[in-house]
Amino acid sequence: MLSDQQLLRIPGPTPIPPSVQRAMSQPMIGHRGQETKELLKSIKPKLKPIFGTEQDVAIITGSGTAGLEAAVVNTVTPGDEVLVIATGAFGERFVKIADAYQIKTHRYDVEWGEAVTPGAIKEYLTKYPAIKAVFATFCETSTGVLNPVQELAKVVHSHSDALFIVDGVSCIGGVECKMDEWGIDLLVTGSQKAMMLPAGLTFIAASDRAWKTIEQNEQPRFYLGLKKYRDNLEKDSTPFTPALSLLLGLEQVLTLMNEEGLEQIHERHRLMMEMTRAAFRALDIPLLTSDIAASPTVTAIKPADFEAEALRRVLKEEFGLAVAGGQQHMKGEIFRIGHMGYCSPADVLQTISIVEISLRKIGKDIELGKGTQAAQEIYLG
Ligand SMILES: *Cc1c(COP(=O)(O)O)cnc(C)c1O
């Protein structure tokens, strides 16, 4: 194994395209100078179609969780009631943030591996009319579930006046999103998942309705106060020193995304998901989620007759291939393959083939090539 070869197939951080790496190594620029102004001016319109919004997308230096916290502190105050739909570890993160700010949190738990049923939320909202905001996870990274946010938005708006707030950290950029059309009031993503950058930026956009709430919300906040970011962005500027190297990388990411085209990007992610799922099916190894609930960006596999952790060890130690394990109670129960951002069908074929040989190494009796062949056949259509 090459000591410096990383086959990074975890659901974030994800590999960085070489041209983005090069863009990030450009000499430093002044954050109040013309170069940064031009940079933000160029970035601004290109982020909007990725979110599916006409609103400006604020860029905050911080990991994805900073964006989630911004979503909470800008919209609700202690004592307000919110509903958090928790379909896994990242839904729970919203619960923890809301708890930290003494928000009255209703928690709607969905079994890990399943997507939320919008109908159930309807009943909840009717029962608790004081709920001011509903928080949901678009792609639940801990299980590889893509929640039906479009339908959820519909349910939230037709049965309440609550804001609909979405964590899209592990899928925005890799899946279609129509924030305005679907009725998402606040959408958050991060840089290190489908956006092909290192960790360090969080992106957040708000609807006109959400802006009204944000302007009136009395919850104290400083660094995460969204209004500052909006007012500065209008002037192609930021309230604090931005992560300039990441912005230089972002500019190149947006160029790459523009060259490939958003529809093609979404199609590539869907294809990678189908190739991955077909491979494990052919090998007779269970998937955690149903086809309907599956995310195009990450796949969770739930082995019945071998140790997920033993497989992960061989993958990493012999081939330098990193896949993720399970979180919390799913630790040791599942492993997760990220196929998002700078990842192609070629990478998926490599991953499957390495998984096959490693399965043999840990003593699982499989026919070599069976999974790879299934993935190849999906590729060929
Ligand atoms: C990665 C991720 C986050 C953010 O995590 P950070 O480590 O703070 O960047 C939030 N939500 C989801 C769904 C994620 O996958």
TrEMBL record:
InterPro entries found in the cross-reference section: Aminotrans_V_dom, Aminotrans_V_PyrdxlP_BS, PyrdxlP-dep_Trfase, PyrdxlP-dep_Trfase_major, PyrdxlP-dep_Trfase_small, SP_NH2Trfase/AEP_transaminase
Cited SUPFAM superfamilies: PLP-dependent transferases
Source organism of the structure: Virgibacillus salinus
GO MF assignments: alanine-glyoxylate transaminase activity; L-serine-pyruvate transaminase activity
Acetylation listed as a keyword: no
Protein name: Aspartate aminotransferase
Domain Aminotransferase class V: 28-328
Keywords, in A-Z order: Aminotransferase, Pyridoxal phosphate, Transferase
